[in-house]
Amino acid sequence: MTKMNNLKVWAAGGLLLTAGIIAACSSEDEVRGGQSGFQVRLTDAPGDYEAVWIDVEDVLIKRDADTAGEGGWESLPGVQRGVYNLLELVDGRDTMLVDAVIPSGTIHQLRLVLGEDNWITVNGEDIALTTPSAQQSGLKLKINADVNPGIVYGLVLDFDVAKSIVKAGNSGKYILKPVIRTFLDAQGGNLAGDVWPDTVQTAVLAIADGDTVSTYTSEDGGFLFRSLNPGSYQLRFLPDTLSGFLPYDTAGVIVEEGKLTDIGTITFTE
């Protein structure tokens, strides 16, 4: 989900409903049509430094295990390039490096490419980190996992600072040799469907345990909620008030972890 805001919708009869969160999933047609959501987050196992700044330049994946050498690598779209202080990403905190839609299938490897602007702070002094030439093309990480259509996957890169920074004897220099663990999991479940007539833009609310997640139908009437918490949802469909159609409610829609629930087509009546 790429954007979260408050949403207010006028329903028929003048009832004002406030949805706590709007899930703006602009790529619902792609995700439903043989595509998967793929997020990459960076977090840290801490080390004994005041700050550790890492310059992220790119994140790439390789799908074909048989492609030799440097072939087969592709940069993920929308990489959040920048310099990150790893020591701010502790105690369950992380930062999003990638939030993309990719073709479903197998991801064999991931490559994290770092720039030259890496440094640590020790006793108030900023010290540049030296990167060995063998790692300047990027750190390769084995994934070997399938990503299925219609599901959002989250890959966590757990950067072990204590093992990744090596002091070079008494030279005062520090060498960066990244040690990273990876965790790939499906992020909740997805919920999809269609609304007819598709010419009527409709707000769709998914309600569970007092929380409301909302989105709008696309031009072809489809809608998709990504990464919902598993559970039973009530769905409320609110057509444009100028359409003359009445709101529609349904309950007992089950969302399961790592699965896509498709409720089919909802047809409005006057």
Automatic annotation (TrEMBL):
InterPro entries: Carb-bd-like_fold (IPR013784), DUF4382 (IPR025491)
Keywords: Signal
Highest rank taxon of the organism: Bacteria
SUPFAM superfamilies per record: Starch-binding domain-like
Domain DUF4382 residue range list: 38-178
Gene3D superfamilies cross-referenced by the UniProt entry: Carboxypeptidase-like, regulatory domain
Signal peptide: 1-24
Entry-linked PROSITE patterns: PROKAR_LIPOPROTEIN (PS51257)
Molecular-function GO terms, alphabetical: carbohydrate binding
Protein name per the record: Uncharacterized protein DUF4382
